[in-house]
Write a structure and sequence with these properties.
The complex is a heterodimer of chains A (275) and B (353). Chain A has 275 residues and is of the alpha/beta class. Chain A has one domain: TIM Barrel. Chain A has 10 helices and 9 strands. In chain A, the strands form 2 sheets. In chain A, strands 1-2-3-4-5-6-7 form a 7-stranded parallel β-sheet. A two-stranded antiparallel sheet of chain A has the order 8-9. In chain A, helix 1 links the parallel strand 1 and strand 2. In chain A, helix 3 runs parallel beside helix 4 and helix 7 packs across helix 8. In chain B, helix 2 packs antiparallel against helix 9 and helix 3 packs antiparallel against helix 9. In chain B, a hairpin with a 3-residue loop joins strand 14 and strand 15. Helix content of chain B is 24%, strand content 33%. Chain B has 2 domains: 204 residues, no CATH class; 138 residues, no CATH class. By secondary structure, chain B is of the alpha+beta class. Chain B starts with a helix and ends in an 8-residue tail after the last strand. Chain B is built from 9 helices and 15 strands. The chains are: A alpha/beta (275), B alpha+beta (353).
Chain lengths: 275, 353
């Protein structure tokens, strides 16, 4: 098993709220959190993809994870809510500032395209409404082969009782198609009270139809494989490793040669794919 | 899908009844095999304060050391191996590391070093090891088990060199470490410890007198009490959870098993720290002496908890945490030298001896 991670913590502009969220996550035992910036492009208005705020501006000092001796690790994640295929632009430069990339398809065609084609790490399953489409085995298996995971978030279930029904119904139908593999469970917490501890989320996974071991993996090993998949996606399968130089302006990047960059990248284990 | 929900988390309970006077009783070997004990809690019914000889045993339990950020290759230092491992019977456990998240280290008194590593650390270390028995679909946890008393691990040997270079240069494993030593060995360790930030700790002893307690009727001959309900009641008493199940309280619905009796008072004592099996043996001997005299109630219960985050459980077998990592045993002793022993583990564990 690997460390516990919560890969969906909602971003808010208030610094104090973000500080409290990260401290609550560290207190509950999560070793890694990912701040989620949701981007919903609309047809009428032209919206800009948000730039991630550096972690130092969110919190002064990263708190130590309860029970361990390391501070919590904070990543940045972008979720693109798609209602049209033009909303997700592959290889857009704005995506490079984020560690993780997620997509939330709203129609069946988009779900199929996201599973088979799009270069993303996470596919979010909507929990706030009844799913407009059914999960077919073919795109789900295609996504699993590529290393893409499906995400179910649970804080909507805490806020509202109708959404609790939708969360459970959608999650159960997902588990039937994917047989419990390649699933992650995360909060989409906006307040510290909406976070739950990792063993509680393991129990919640049992309610969704996962077995005991699978539910624990959904909070630990599968999240680790998502983070590794994102790293290899950003570095072209782990061969080229790009590093921002601090002296230049933030938009400039420098690609190091393969032999120089291989030292940190080679020590990484392979991304976990279905075996 | 809901079949899994009906099943409670998998646990294993081994129950044994025997007598101290029987030559074939395996109690001492069972106690010896659990090397790392975290807590011993005792319940003495109809007793208001600890008897003096029991207090003497508490005070004689050795202290243990906590070393902050110990590089693990120091456990393979030649001098430490000679004084502590080969001659002394030092044992130790990493502290502040979770068995299902981090890298954990255990040094057993028989000289076996067990490293429970996650996938990345194992691949970086580069020493031979086995995948954990409790891996799910993919191998995410590996166990490196080394016998430091074996000839291949003598300082200078190839296996030894490989492990030392691995821990020094490739994977610089540093954890907080709890170290426990047999009596008389403490002074020789001070030279080793002085290089790091270390502190000495005595086991913490807490005692609590309970009044007006309902307890099950425990006798040595009848199968009067179901082991699970007995263990649940013992746990409730130790955790100060009320078993009255009054209609006005919604906090706990635990009840004392039937048939039951009422105790006017009882003493609950707990000792927490890094305790050796020898300390537990001494406590058991003293409680047997205590029970030899006629008392109002003829039983005493003693529960020993192992560490939840220890990489090894009984007899050096691997231990893991699925939803809970309890590995404990509960000994119910009677005045006629009979006892009932219940050994319990969680899901990721082998069967207790």
């Amino acid at each position: 098993m690997s460390v516990f991670m919560d890969l969906n913590v909602s971003f808010s502009a208030e610094r104090s709220r973000m500080t409290k969220l990260i401290e609550a996550a560290a207190h509950l035992g999560f070793s890694t959190v990912a701040i989620n910036y949701v981007f919903e492009p609309m047809a009428k208005k032209k919206l800009e993809i948000p730039m991630p705020t550096p972690v130092k501006e969110l919190i002064d000092q990263l708190p130590v994870v309860q029970g361990r001796s390391r501070p919590i690790r904070v990543l940045n994640r972008l979720t693109v809510v798609m209602s049209d295929s033009s909303h997700f632009r592959p290889n857009a430069t704005e995506y490079r500032g984020f560690d993780l990339l997620a997509v939330q398809p709203t129609t069946e065609k988009l779900f199929h395209a996201a599973c088979m084609l799009y270069d993303v790490d996470i596919i979010c399953i909507s929990v706030t409404e009844k799913l407009p489409f059914f999960f077919k085995r073919a795109p789900v298996n295609g996504a699993m082969d590529r290393g893409v995971v499906f995400e179910v978030s649970y804080s909507a279930a805490i806020r509202d009782s109708t959404r609790r029904r939708y969360t459970i119904a959608n999650a159960v139908s997902l588990m039937e198609s994917c047989k419990g593999k390649n699933v992650i469970l995360s909060s989409a917490a906006e307040k510290p009270l909406e976070l739950r501890g990792p063993y509680d989320i393991t129990n919640l996974g049992l309610l969704f139809g996962l077995s005991e071991g699978d539910a624990k993996e959904a909070v630990s090993s599968t999240c680790r494989s998502v983070v590794l998949h994102a790293e290899s996606r950003k570095s072209a399968s782990g061969i080229i490793y790009t590093m921002k130089t601090c002296s230049e302006s933030s938009s400039q990047q420098e690609a190091l040669a393969a032999d120089l960059g291989e030292a940190p990248a080679a020590k990484r284990a392979k991304p976990h794919l279905t075996q | 899908m809901f079949g899994d929900l009906e099943r409670t988390p998998r646990t294993l309970l081994v129950c044994e009844r025997s007598s101290f006077l029987d030559e074939k009783n395996r109690l001492s070997s069972q106690v010896e095999q659990l090397h790392f004990n975290y807590k011993v809690s005792m319940l003495l019914p109809e007793c208001s304060s600890a008897p003096s000889h029991l207090e003497a045993v508490f005070n004689s339990i050795n202290s243990f050391y906590l070393i902050r950020k110990l590089p693990i290759h120091e456990l393979l230092d030649k001098h430490f191996l000679e004084t502590a491992v080969h001659q002394g019977r030092v044992s130790g456990l990493s502290y502040g590391t979770r068995i299902d998240e981090d890298n954990c280290v255990a040094l057993m008194p028989n000289g076996h070093l067990s490293l429970s590593l996650d996938k990345d650390s194992f691949e970086v270390l580069g020493v031979e090891g086995k995948p954990s028995r409790f891996n799910q679909r993919t191998n995410s946890r590996f166990v490196v088990s080394v016998d430091l008393t074996d000839s291949s691990m003598a300082p200078g040997g190839r296996g030894y060199q490989r492990l030392v270079t691995g821990l020094k240069s490739r994977l610089q494993l540093k954890t907080d470490f709890l170290l426990s030593h047999p009596p008389g060995c403490g002074a020789s360790l001070h030279a080793f410890l002085s290089r790091y930030d270390w502190s000495e700790h005595k086991p913490e002893i807490r005692s609590h007198t309970l009044t007006d307690l309902s307890s099950p009727l425990l006798t040595s001959d009848l199968q009067s009490c179901d082991p699970r309900r007995l263990l649940e009641w013992l746990g409730a008493v130790d955790a100060h959870v009320s078993c009255e199940n009054s209609s006005s309280s919604f906090l706990s619905s635990l009840v004392c098993p039937e048939p039951r009796t009422r105790l006017s008072q009882a003493l609950s004592v707990s000792v927490c720290g890094l305790l050796r099996p020898q300390d537990v043996q001494q406590l058991i001997q003293q409680i047997r002496c205590y029970l030899e005299q006629p008392r109002l109630e003829n039983w005493v219960s003693l529960t020993v908890h192992g560490f939840v985050d220890s990489p090894v459980s009984w007899g050096g077998e691997e231990h893991g945490v699925l939803r809970g990592g309890d590995n404990f045993y509960s000994l119910l002793m009677f005045h006629d030298h009979t006892y009932q022993l219940h050994l319990a583990t969680g899901a990721h564990d082998t069967c207790p001896p």
